[in-house]
Structure to design on (239 residues):
């Protein structure tokens, strides 16, 4: 249906992923952690989809209209990520391979529009503290306005860790810090209801050793928690 929400998750888990953690983790460890975080993000999206169909225990998300989550598209860069996407009920879309977040997002948005999306919710694959409550908060902020831009801010209030667009082409994606300001300015220029949501679980994206240390004191999703335990990061990261 044309008023439904499609979630677009963009994940980079290949050999170059999480390069700023190279001094802390090996290539294999970074790959394992990136896959685990992607698994948790997609699992939450899958849960939200079923809750929006009225199949969750609390039925928080709406069952129809602009809050109906039709499904999740995962823009992925390698076979292991594709397997994680399919396991979590997502449709896998090949990353265009340009090393450009906005190019990958654009591919995801186009695929969502081809499936009748009236709203797209864009997420990175490295926000392991995300919850269905976060998704609900973003949808609540959108309300029923026909033109909407909702920005889920990172912890430093500079980066965009979620971007809700209604309609999907209301603005062009402009990821890359300081993208919050760019998205807000674009939304206002487009005459859209524009909101920034801070303090959500998804505010923590894991790129640096400091981010990893913060993750150690939090309660990540089960895949990430298992990866941290397996990698014995409590011994290798100073908290």
């Amino acid at each position: 249906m044309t008023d439904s929400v499609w979630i677009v998750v963009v994940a980079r888990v290949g050999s170059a992923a999480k390069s700023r953690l190279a001094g802390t983790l090996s290539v294999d460890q970074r790959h394992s952690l990136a896959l685990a975080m992607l698994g948790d993000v997609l699992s939450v999206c899958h849960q939200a989809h079923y809750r929006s169909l009225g199949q969750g225990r609390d039925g928080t998300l709406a069952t129809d209209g602009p809050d109906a989550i039709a499904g999740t598209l995962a823009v992925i860069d390698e076979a292991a990520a594709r397997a994680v996407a399919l396991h979590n009920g997502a449709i896998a879309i090949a990353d265009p391979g340009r090393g450009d977040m906005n190019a990958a997002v654009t591919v995801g948005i186009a695929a969502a529009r081809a499936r009748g999306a009236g709203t797209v919710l864009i997420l990175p694959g490295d926000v392991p503290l995300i919850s269905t409550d976060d998704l609900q908060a973003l949808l609540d902020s959108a309300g029923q306005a026909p033109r909407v831009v909702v920005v889920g801010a990172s912890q430093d209030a500079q980066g965009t860790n979620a971007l809700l667009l209604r309609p999907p082409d209301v603005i062009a994606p402009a990821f890359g810090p300081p993208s919050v300001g760019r998205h807000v300015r674009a939304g206002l220029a487009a005459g859209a209801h524009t909101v920034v949501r801070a303090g959500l679980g998804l505010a923590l994206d894991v790129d640096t050793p400091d981010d990893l240390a913060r993750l150690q004191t939090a309660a990540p999703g089960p895949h990430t928690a298992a990866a941290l335990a397996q990698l014995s990061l409590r011994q290798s990261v100073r908290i």
Remarks:
- Strands lie at 4-10, 69-76, 91-94, 117-124, 148-153, 160-166, 193-197.
- The chain has a mean pLDDT of 89.
- Residues 113 and 168 are 7 Å apart (CA to CA).
- DSSP finds eight helices and seven strands in the chain.
